[in-house]
Specification:
Length: 137
């Protein structure tokens, strides 16, 4: 019985040691950058529905190549695409509810393509977008 308790205590000791305090060294932290006061909705507020569709189309067309280049432009393209999507998602839900899921699939594939660096997913998203966008224009 004593051997079992000793063995249990030895086995549990690494778990207890791992529960030590965590701290962040302030000198290693990056300084905060100023936050832009212009929101995405302010930048895209003046665009029409068709202009947003065109931005999404152009962005998806460029996304695969940007992922292959791996120069950070994929993130910028995705951000522009998401801004336009946020601006028109409500309109699509209201006016074209049968197409909303297709658009959602497109956006999700685009996000995954950048997140996982998969240009094939970006190409799939663009091809799917062509079909889905045809149903709303």
């Amino acid at each position: 019985m004593l051997n079992r308790l000793t063995l249990l205590a030895i086995a549990a000791s690494p778990l207890l040691v791992a529960c030590g305090a965590t701290y962040i060294e302030d000198s290693l932290a990056e300084p905060s950058l100023p936050v832009s006061t212009v929101s995405a909705s302010q930048q895209t507020a003046d665009l029409s529905f068709s202009e947003h569709i065109a931005i999404i189309d152009e962005s998806l067309n460029q996304l695969s190549d940007a992922i292959v280049e791996n120069d950070g432009s994929g993130d910028q393209i995705l951000a522009r695409l998401l801004e336009s999507w946020e601006a028109i998602e409500g309109d699509i839900k209201a006016d074209f509810p049968e197409s909303h899921f297709g658009f959602y699939e497109v956006i999700t594939l685009a996000e995954i393509s950048v997140e996982r660096r998969r240009p094939a997913d970006a190409s799939k998203a663009w091809k799917l977008f062509i079909d889905v966008a045809a149903s709303v224009q």
